[in-house]
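[step 3/7] inverse_fold.run input=structure_tokens len=280
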């Protein structure tokens, strides 16, 4: 990484959050974002939407945070938009305000997808509405057998097309399954989510957070520049044809081959030691 790039990036360890909990482990490589209104099953508000979007936008320039764990407090992930703090006010807004709101919520998904760090969602209990969208927007999803995921928008007279769901969810679980969930708003069980590929793995409640952290730590100690490139290409290649994506991956991989991490990995292999990745 050049000196100019280093100046653009800055440590993120001291950040304070107002509408959720934000903490990092000892060396700052793994950050944990905890939705923290357990008495209401961790609903989102106008303020928490705004702050979460800003957080993920800022993380794009973080020099220390390499992986993010997203979780909920108190045995639930998130019940979605707060009924009285979001849903009720929306019923009284005019179109310009409504469009500003839907663009703001969609921007949160954009920032989760665009930040270079892999995002691991640890999902227990209720994961509904906008909460299900946060899980969907994450890169990897771990859950408990008690997880109940529902895209509830049609239950309140809205389209299933919310915060990118009609574009992203079919890519995860397939068009037919996504159509069913988005039309009906029914709950997807943890077993269904695992079988359909929405959840990468299921863990008992007592071990979920440890499992999420272990995976996060493994990724954080790995070639994190290369992980960021992988995430970038996973996003970009959705809209590419075969010729374009093959060429894009050729360029991306050549960039990674020019890094010190690539050389370090070879030298460690030759010396039969474990590589230490530095992100450059």
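[step 3/7] decode complete -> sequence:
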């Amino acid at each position: 990484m050049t000196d100019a790039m280093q100046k653009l990036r800055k440590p993120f360890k001291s950040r304070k959050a107002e509408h959720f909990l934000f903490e990092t482990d000892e060396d700052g490589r793994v950050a944990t974002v905890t939705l923290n209104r357990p008495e209401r099953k961790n609903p989102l508000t106008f303020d928490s939407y705004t702050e979460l979007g800003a957080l993920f936008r800022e993380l794009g320039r973080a020099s220390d945070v390499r992986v993010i764990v997203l979780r909920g407090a108190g045995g639930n992930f998130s019940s979605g938009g707060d009924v009285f703090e979001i849903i009720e006010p929306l019923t009284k807004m005019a179109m310009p305000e409504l469009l500003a709101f839907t663009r703001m919520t969609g921007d949160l998904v954009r920032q989760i997808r665009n930040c270079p760090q892999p995002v691991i969602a640890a999902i227990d209990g209720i994961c509904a509405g906008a909460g299900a969208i946060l899980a969907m927007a994450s890169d990897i999803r771990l859950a408990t057998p008690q997880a109940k995921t529902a895209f509830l928008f049609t239950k309140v007279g809205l389209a299933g097309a919310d915060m990118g769901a009609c574009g992203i969810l079919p890519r995860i679980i397939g068009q037919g399954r996504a159509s069913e969930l988005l039309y009906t708003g029914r709950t997807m069980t943890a077993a269904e989510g695992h079988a359909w590929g929405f959840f990468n793995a299921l863990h008992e409640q007592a071990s979920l957070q440890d499992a999420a952290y272990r995976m996060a730590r493994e990724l954080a100690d790995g070639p994190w520049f290369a992980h960021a490139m992988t995430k970038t290409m996973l996003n970009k290649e959705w809209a590419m044809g075969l010729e374009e994506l093959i060429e894009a991956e050729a360029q991306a991989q050549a960039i990674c081959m020019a890094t010190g991490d690539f050389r370090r990995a070879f030298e460690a292999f030759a010396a039969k030691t474990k590589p230490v990745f530095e992100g450059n």
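[step 4/7] annotate
The radius of gyration is 19 Å.
Residues 237 and 245 are 6 Å apart (CA to CA).
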